[in-house]
Amino acid sequence: MAAITLIRHGQASFGKADYDQLSELGYEQARHLGTVLREREEPVDTVFIGAMKRHRQTAEACLEAAGVDLPLQVLPGFNEFNHEQVIERYEPRYRDRDWLVAEMAKHANPGELFGQMFRQAIARWVGGTHDTDYDESWQHFQQRSRAALDEALSALPKRGRALVFTSGGCISVISQGLLGLNDDATFRVNLTLANAGLSRISQGSSQRNLISLNEHSHFSGRHRDLLTYR
């Protein structure tokens, strides 16, 4: 049967002018994942990436370390939703990045504060009553992420193996469709996805299965300092 491994990108540059850029730690995560994949000697026939910079950077660093020399096939359907717009529509003052950073710096746990704010912003987007405020609705994001998976699987031979470098939102809604999760559970999954974590999907003749979700044991033990979630 065909199989796809969804790989979340390495840590991006949160709080920087260009979020869509791997941090130094993000590059290190991608290289370490590549080393692990090389040691596992898992076959790879095809590599897909979303059209975002962090997807390509993660793929290039990972594949170089893995010793895999394959072209990167771009499928924009694997792009992340516009989280910055989702946040700004919830609280227009967050358009000013300096103001947001300053507000977060006032709190003892900025990560927790951001998580609370992000969940509220997501709830507004997912709720469906403000769809005209966004360039992409929640339902459209679900549909195009799952359509990208369909496209990737249809391009594989019967026993083909592919890597897909994408983002947490896409992985979450693809998992949602396969597991029958509601929207609230889907975003609880989203918040637990590790950078450079692996989720595996198999495609048989009549059934598609989620084999693993958010595998990140490669960031345990002496590599535990590489584990991040945002």
Structure report:
The protein is α/β, with parallel strands linked by helices. It has 8 helices and 6 strands. Strand 5 and strand 6 form a beta hairpin. Helix 5 runs antiparallel to helix 8. The protein is globular, with a radius of gyration of 18 Å. It starts with a strand and ends in a 15-residue tail after the last strand. The mean pLDDT is 92.
What count of helical segments does DSSP give? Answer: 8
Q: For the largest beta sheet, what order do the strands appear in spatially?
A: 3-2-4-1-5-6
- Beta-strand portion reads 5-15%
Low-confidence stretches: none
- Mean pLDDT value: 92
Q: Biggest sheet, open or closed, and with what strands and sense? A: 6 strands, mixed
| N→C terminal distance | 33 Å
How do the helices and strands follow one another from N- to C-terminus?
Answer: EHEHEHHHHEHHEE
Based on the coordinates given, report the CATH architecture of the largest domain. 3-Layer(aba) Sandwich
Q: Label the structural class.
A: alpha/beta
Fill in the CATH topology of the largest domain. Rossmann fold
- Look at the structure and name the CATH superfamily of the largest domain: Phosphoglycerate mutase-like
CATH class of the largest domain: Alpha Beta
Shape annotation: globular
Alpha carbon gyration radius = 18 Å
Q: How many DSSP-defined strands?
A: 6
